[in-house]
Write a structure and sequence with these properties.
Blueprint (H helix, E strand, L loop, with lengths): L24 E2 L5 E5 L2 H4 L11 H12 L3 E3 L5 E2 L2 E5 L12 H18 L3 E4 L2 H11 L10 H4 L4 E2 L4 E2 L12 H13 L7 E2 L11 E2 L1
Parallel strand pairs: 2-5, 2-6, 6-8
Antiparallel strand pairs: 1-5, 3-4, 7-8, 9-10
Helix pairs in contact: 2-6
Length: 209
């Protein structure tokens, strides 16, 4: 099923109960869903768009080089890509409470189901732990060596996952590792769909994952 909308900013009309929030941004039928932490970490409180601070622009540059963005900036031009946060509200303090994370998780869950992207790209430890816990068989209780899995393909339950070290912590080669990993992934059949149309009446394809 395809989402029909011409809106790039908040295409699903999310309205969390907070004074300021940074909704999802991008292609509502994206192949790649990039998930960050919250606006205080990855930006957007001023622009209303995820990943629009110093660390966010660093990530945007890598996504653009890998072919997931056509242009970077405060309103990036996306290509099969959707950007959103685990916690979309602008936190009142430095860090959201655990209760706030738990409450806002439902909005990300709704976006994940609506878009049904082929690849999840969690950015930073908290977003990666969320994706590993909910969409892979990887244990997270003992922590994640994010530097070791940065930019690598991990098979999830219904998704492929490409974890990303927080851009604020990148060393000189982390940009290139992510670009190379995403480029290599796109050279494969990352959608992993099978056409079951041959089992149905008529000649229309029926693709499932």
């Amino acid at each position: 099923m395809k989402n029909v909308t011409d809106r790039t900013r908040n295409p699903f009309g999310m309205r969390p109960d907070c004074a300021r929030f940074v909704p999802g941004y991008g292609d509502a039928n994206a192949h790649f869903h990039v998930v960050g932490d919250h606006p205080g970490v990855h930006g957007g409180a001023d622009t209303g768009v995820p990943f629009t601070n110093e660390a966010g622009y660093r990530l945007q540059a890598a996504l653009a080089e890998a072919g997931l963005l056509e242009a970077t900036g405060d309103e990036p031009t996306v290509d099969r890509t959707y950007l959103s946060y685990l916690h979309m509200c602008v936190p009142e303090g430095d860090v959201p409470t655990e209760a706030a994370y738990a409450d806002l998780e439902r909005y990300l869950d709704a976006e994940l189901r609506a878009i049904a992207a082929h690849v999840l790209v969690p950015v930073g430890e908290r977003a990666t732990a969320y994706v590993f816990r909910n969409h892979t068989a990887r244990p997270v209780d003992e922590g994640i060596d994010l530097a070791a899995v940065h930019g690598t393909e991990i098979l999830g339950t219904g998704f492929l996952v490409v974890p990303v070290l927080d851009p604020a912590d990148w060393t000189d080669d982390d940009h290139g590792r992510l670009v190379d990993g995403l480029r290599e992934l796109q050279r494969t059949d990352y959608r992993r769909e099978v056409d079951l149309g041959r089992f149905l009446a008529g000649d229309q394809p029926y693709h499932v994952r």
